[in-house]
Design goal:
Number of helices: 7
Strand order of the largest sheet: 1-2
Helix content: 55-70%
Oligomer: single chain
Radius of gyration: 19 Å
Shape: globular
CATH topology of the largest domain: Four Helix Bundle (Hemerythrin (Met), subunit A)
Mean pLDDT: 85
Low-confidence stretches: 1-16
Largest sheet: 2 strands, antiparallel
Strand content: under 5%
Order of helices and strands: HHHHHEEHH
Length: 208
């Protein structure tokens, strides 16, 4: 991957840090921190998530519970998995790093929640995520903690950084949101597409 020490090659920029995504390097040059970018992505995903709860509310319980043969059986299962990934990683980041804010506890949610219960779970989780991410400072991103044993077999390194986990959660939700879109389209249901431009315009209108 490109680094700031890379020798010039053709027209390729040379200002990037080792293993740093190009957009992070550009943001730094504009005075935007990587942590601010992460917070923006988390806020975007939280807003986009609401569209799926609205889409689910228009489907019958049978359609919501139907096994789609996807990464997780039903639409609700896939949505819940995304929420579970946040809880899994944030709770372990919190326990694995002294000085960081505690994460949780979260409200109890039944095994097969209603849409109302799922919405409450979503709001509760996001409130805790916002508190945790809001309390981080830029230097916290390089902190590491042991890879949880539940996922150790799929990771070669014994530790993982807070930076990599936070970006992983962005990627994880985008991946499963695309999966939900495809399944909804297969049902001839319009997916609740909410892109970054929509979100940027919404933020601008709220600040006006």
């Amino acid at each position: 991957m490109l680094t700031r020490d890379t020798e010039p090659t053709g027209m390729v920029p040379t200002r990037w840090k080792l293993n740093e995504p190009l957009y992070v390097g550009r943001a730094r040059s504009e005075g935007v921190s990587e942590l601010d970018l992460i917070r923006q992505w988390f806020a975007f995903n939280a807003r986009a998530r609401q569209g799926y709860l609205e889409a689910f509310s228009k489907l019958s319980p049978e359609e919501l519970a139907r096994d789609r043969g996807a990464s997780y059986p039903s639409l609700v299962n896939i949505f819940e998995h995304t929420l579970g990934a946040y809880y899994f990683w944030f709770s372990r980041m919190s326990k694995g790093n002294d000085g960081l804010p505690r994460f949780g506890p979260l409200r109890d949610t039944p095994e097969n929640p209603s849409l109302q219960e799922l919405a409450l779970e979503t709001d509760d989780l996001q409130a805790h995520v916002d508190l945790f991410v809001g309390a981080l400072v830029e230097g916290d991103l390089q902190r590491t903690f042991p890879v949880p044993r539940e996922v150790a077999s799929s990771h070669s390194d014994p530790t993982v950084s807070i930076r990599d986990v936070l970006w992983h959660l962005v990627e994880e939700e985008l991946q499963h949101r695309g999966e939900l879109n495809a399944l909804l389209w297969q049902m001839d249901v319009d997916a609740p597409i909410f892109d970054w431009i929509d979100w940027a315009q919404l933020r601008k209108s709220q600040k006006a």
